[in-house]
């Protein structure tokens, strides 16, 4: 499937590194999401960019910084992460109207992040 | 805060049996309830969804029911097959976000 792509697929980084995760969607969607998936925990919504408006989850630490330069691309910038940030980071996108409700979210394959 | 609870966390059935997974939600404003299937090492994929103006929806061997008054919804899989083995996530939400349940690991034994 090539609708939503993510790079890199695997990333190992030290706590002092700075890295970025990239997501790209080719579906003409206008809302994109970052989720964190840890073992034995629900998918946690981190950030939403919807119709060019950013909606944040206030519980996400500031060491995670999103960027959405256009409706097709989404980045997650990482700096000074902790070992507990190791997880699968999933990007998703959906098509949403200004008055419509939620719809199917299409997920990317994820980036498996390991923080040493 | 808003949350979605999902039960059971693991479910083991024999091939051909039915499987039922249940979820409850807390946000009464939720109006969209999808179910995702995630196979090992793969991305979550939508298998069925239901909106708050509908009580039941069926797609071949899969059905979902919604009780808005009780704030719970369920996934029913009939005539289970080994390829149904995966982790299933329910979610509830509205315009800007979905809250996911913790997942149910379904194992279908031949």
Describe this protein's structure:
The complex is a heterodimer of chains A (116) and B (110). Chain A has strands at residues 4-7, 10-13, 18-25, 31-37, 44-50, 53-56, 64-70, 73-79, 87-94, 106-107, 111-115. Chain A is mainly β and 116 residues long. The termini of chain A are far apart. The model of chain A has no long low-confidence stretch (mean pLDDT 89). With 110 residues, chain B is mainly beta. Chain B is built from no helices and 11 strands. Chain B has strands at residues 4-7, 10-14, 19-25, 32-38, 45-51, 56-59, 62-67, 72-77, 86-93, 98-100, 104-109. Chain B is globular. Chain B starts with a strand and ends with a strand. The chains are: A mainly beta (116), B mainly beta (110). The interface between A and B is medium-sized, with 24 and 26 residues.
What would the keywords be for this entry?
heterodimer; A: 116 residues; mainly beta; 7-stranded mixed sheet; 4-stranded antiparallel sheet; 54% strand; globular; B: 110 residues; 6-stranded mixed sheet; 11 strands
């Amino acid at each position: 499937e090539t609708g939503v792509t993510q790079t890199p697929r695997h990333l190992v980084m030290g706590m002092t590194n700075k890295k970025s995760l990239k997501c790209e969607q080719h579906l003409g969607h206008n809302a994109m999401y970052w989720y964190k998936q840890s073992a034995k925990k629900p998918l946690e919504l981190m950030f939403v960019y919807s119709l060019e408006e950013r909606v944040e989850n206030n519980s996400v630490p500031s060491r995670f910084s999103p960027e959405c330069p256009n409706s097709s691309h989404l980045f997650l910038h990482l700096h000074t992460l902790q070992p507990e940030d190791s997880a699968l980071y999933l990007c998703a996108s959906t098509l949403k109207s200004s008055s419509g409700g939620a719809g199917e979210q299409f997920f990317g394959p994820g980036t498996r992040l390991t923080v040493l | 805060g808003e949350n979605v609870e999902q039960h059971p966390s693991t479910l083991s059935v024999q091939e051909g049996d039915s499987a039922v997974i249940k979820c409850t939600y807390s946000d009464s404003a939720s109006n969209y309830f999808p179910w995702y299937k995630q196979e090992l090492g793969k991305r979550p994929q939508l298998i069925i969804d239901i909106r708050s103006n509908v009580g039941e929806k069926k797609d071949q061997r899969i059905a979902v029911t919604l009780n808005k008054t009780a704030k719970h919804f369920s996934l029913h899989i009939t005539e289970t097959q080994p390829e149904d083995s995966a982790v299933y996530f329910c979610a509830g939400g509205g315009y800007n976000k979905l809250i996911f349940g913790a997942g149910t690991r379904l194992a279908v034994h031949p």
